[in-house]
Automatic annotation (TrEMBL):
Domain of life: Archaea
UniProt domain DNA2/NAM7 helicase-like C-terminal: residue ranges: 424-607
Family: Belongs to the DNA2/NAM7 helicase family.
Organism per entry: Thermoproteota archaeon
Keyword match Hydrolase: yes
Keywords, in A-Z order: ATP-binding, Coiled coil, Helicase, Hydrolase, Nucleotide-binding
Molecular function, one GO term: ATP binding
Gene3D superfamilies the UniProt entry points to: P-loop containing nucleotide triphosphate hydrolases
Protein name in the entry: AAA+ ATPase domain-containing protein
Coiled coil: 279-343
Pfam families cross-referenced by the UniProt entry: AAA_11, AAA_12
Amino acid sequence: MLICDKCGKWSKLGYTICPYCGYVLLHNDKNKSLFLDFMRSLIIRERNEEKRRIERDKIVGKIIDVTEDMITIECQIPRFEEGDVIGYIKEGKIEPLGIVLSGGRFITIALYKPLDLKEEENLEICESEVLIGYDLQLNLIEKIKKNELNEFEEKAIKHLFEISNLKNLRKAKPSDNLDVKEKFVLDDSQLEVIEYALGLEENESLIIIGPPGTGKTRVIAKIAYELYKKGERVLITSHTNRAVDNALEILPIEISLRVGRPEKVLPSIRPYLLSYKARSILGSKLEDLENKIINIKKEIYGIYQIKDEWYRIGYWKKYRDRLQDAKNRLKKLFEERNLILMEESKKLIKEAKIIGSTLIKSNLPPLDNQYFDTVLIDECSQVSITLALLGMIKAKKWILVGDHKQLLPIFQTLEDKKIQENLSAFCYMLNKYKERSLWLKWHYRSNSNIIGFSAHYIYEGKIFPVSSCKNIKLEIKEYPIEFLNPDIPIVFLHINSKESIREDGSKFNEIEANIVVKIIKILRNLGIKSENIGVITPYRAQRDYIKEILKNNEIEINTVDSFQGREKDVIIFTITSTKDMSFVEDENRLNVAFTRARRKLIVIGNANSIRKEHKILFKFLSYVKEKGGYFTNGFLN
């Protein structure tokens, strides 16, 4: 239990804000120590869940070459690609190995530290980025408890946990009032946020509240660009690759660098990648080396094919010598290639002024020893306090961007939503430093009636659609069914349906699923492209069932948790549940689902299951009826 210094009442472990008076609980050393113990226990439980998952996906590889800082492994299955974080299994434990420099069947890995491994040994390896993320958080907790912090870590921890007497926010003018890429004029709330961000001094933070469609990504890019022009070094980070990519692709490529795996970044971002830039600079020199490597790999494969025949005629010694000679030549080529790639990568990182990376990768090679003037952490409401700290300890100034009304951190072993909210770094900092928070106020993305519900009932009148939003409608001239009328952008379809439960406990609803498929077919016949349609459901079982019966891989069908940060012209949201509505009723989750649509939002559910105690769903149903978008059974006949 934690005690509140202000009201004297006790709160459950895991709370960072007093539920009685709203005071931040972690200011005294005893509460901070208890909280860190709680987080350590929670992260260990989460780590064990992740460990069970990734152990199922392990593969066996043979060590071809190993040095102090690099290892080359021949894999039975070519599963790993450049940028993957790899672990190895030793005595039943998953230990960190390194980051893949070159993927395929023969993978080269930059080691985190020298290891006692031998050539020709077999090694069980697995993808372990999430696991290592937990380890980084656990290591940081231990450093805090033992007071073994460097200067950057100490200042970030002090700002997070102790009472800080900060100056009032100050403004500094940007070089202009234009967006970095498209050069349109930024609105008043965007400019105000940018000016206060540029006015930050060392050991200060700013909290930016960016509801859907208010231009937070462009604001992040503008802040980073203006700080670069002032001579600063900037880290743009998040727990998701997409959030990092969205901001980075707005920035000039010559000053920006993306550290990550090519397969996990947007296609438009690949020229920003560290590996892409290094390879482009090295050009024909690297190409010649890699062609030689490919040829020797083919040679080794050919040697393997003649093994049985050469052993049969007694050429076993000649076979081994020939194979070893090829492996030795391959080893030297790997060493030469890896060395020039490593040297060029270090040079690029040293020269980069704006770097984009996930929170976990920002603490791994080649960024583990890199520090910045300012860090911008996007989608921070989904990030736990200890995960956000991995970003904060990289810089002298901290800008947290998020939306406390969207998704919160997800813990597989924790169900108490109030504790989840209190463990969000964004929610915690917003409560602690409310006077240092600013809103982005103008919404540009969706039809006025679609965003109107969240603007009024979720954001309580703090955001406003711009006048052009009323013209964002489906561009179809004819519609066979009234609910597809472009002038009715928000719709609730009442279906007399019942939920079913899959073996794993997840819910699905056959009638709703079939209605979803019918609507998609009608939309496609009206000329709406598959990539502009999205289907959202709270439940994995409903997602899987719709995918099974639709058989269209071009249409994105996913759970709410996987759709944050995405948008589509048409969103179909299937409520699915008809009994216990507590999971569906989650305000943050519904807000995400309802704000993904630009031109048309279609919600499908059994209206008879929605009652007054289902506060947000009941309000939504009433709102849709007011807008003339409520339709009952028979509309598809």
